[in-house]
Amino acid sequence: MDATAPHVIETNHPVEAHSTSAVTEIDVHTAFEWVKTGIADMLDVREAHEYAVEKIENADFYPLSQFDADKIPETDGKKLILFCAVGKRSIDAGERLLKSGHTQAYSMQGGLIAWDDAGYPIIED
Q1: In a domain, 16, yes or no
Q2: What is the pLDDT of residue 19?
Q3: Which residues form the domain of 82?
Q4: How many domains does the chain have?
Q5: Of 13, 20, 21, 24, which sits 20 to 30 A from 91 (CA to CA)?
C-alpha cells in the first residue's frame, strides 16, 4: 500500500479524489462522511464577508488573505479538509500547509457551492 495515498472510508457515494499540486481533492460526499464520522475537521478559507453570510457548522475559519500556515496546528491524527467558495483558494491554502511541513491537506472540490448543491447543512446569517 502506498503510504502517500489518502485513506478513503466506505460511503454510499462514489468516492472521487485526485491530487493537484500534492493537495488531495475530495468530493463533498467524502468530506461530509469524514466529518460526520469524526475523522476530519474542516477549515473555511473564504474571506470574512463571505463567512458572514453563510458557513458550515463547526468548521474553523481562517481567511486566505491572512493565512499563515505555520499557525495552523496539526490535527491530532484527523484529516484537515480545506474549503472556499468553489475550491481554488482551498488548494492554495493546502499548498501553503504542505510547504510549511504539514503532512496532509485535503481540498473539497466545488467548495461551499458544491456542499450546498449536495443538500448538506449550511448556517445562513
Answers
A1: no
A2: 43
A3: 25-124
A4: 1
A5: 13
Tens digit of each residue's pLDDT (9 = 90 or more) over 69-123: 999 987 778 999 999 999 999 999 999 999 999 889 999 999 999 999 999 999 9
Q: What is the CATH number of the domain that holds 89?
A: 3.40.250.10
- Rounded alpha-carbon distances, angstroms, from residue 21 to 76, 81, 99, 107: 24, 15, 11, 11
Per residue in 18-76, pLDDT (tens digit) is 444 489 999 999 999 999 999 999 999 999 999 999 999 999 999 999 999 999 987 77
Residue 96 lies in a domain: yes
Asked if residues 44 and 123 have their Cβ atoms less than 8 Å apart, the reply is no
Instruction: Please indicate, yes or no, if residue 74 is contained in any of the structural domains.
Output: yes
* pTM, entire model: 0.82
Contact criterion met (CB below 8 Å) for 105 and 82: yes
